[in-house]
């Protein structure tokens, strides 16, 4: 679940950092998150940080990423029996990452979306009440018609 939800967010906010997923076919293998730190000199000598190769998703037994230029060191996180939040917290501690705070425009957009969600919930509730009232009126009308038809036949 981590790579489906959290890794997507990490990739979005860090487009210059190559990230790949190498899954093992055997379910008995430990679930490890490996963070490969590159040599700073190798990064400076590369053509451009934003032209990093696209991340890939594969099933291999190789623990070294295919696009690793010169890995200086590797740190791992054991993800076995951990949920997304625990894994993300461990990842943030390991990499000394920090959360990106939303800008004023993003905060305004979030407030607008929340306001729209509240209005939508109120409209949905009102619509459900109207439908329930119409259904009740329909049932009463059908019941009245049934009573009239039953009294004429008697």
Widest beta sheet: strand line-up:
1-3
By helix and strand content, what is the structural category?
Answer: alpha+beta
Uncertain runs with pLDDT below 50, 5 residues or more?
46-61
Q: Helix and strand string, N-terminal first? A: HEEHEEHH
Question: Helix count, per DSSP?
Answer: 4
List keywords for this structure.
single chain, alpha+beta, 2 domains, 4 helices, 52% helix, elongated
List strands and helices in order, with pairings.
Elements: H1 2-13, E1 21-23, E2 32-38, H2 40-45, E3 57-59, E4 71-78, H3 84-95, H4 104-153
Parallel strand pairs: 1-3
Antiparallel strand pairs: 2-4
Descriptive overview:
Strands 1-3 form a two-stranded parallel ribbon. Strands 2-4 form a two-stranded antiparallel ribbon. By secondary structure, the protein is an alpha+beta fold. The model is unreliable at 46-61 (pLDDT under 50). The protein has two domains: 2-95, no CATH class; 102-154. The N and C termini lie far apart (67 Å). It contains four helices and four strands. The protein has helices at 2-13, 40-45, 84-95, 104-153, and strands at 21-23, 32-38, 57-59, 71-78. Helix content is 52%, strand content 14%. The protein is elongated.
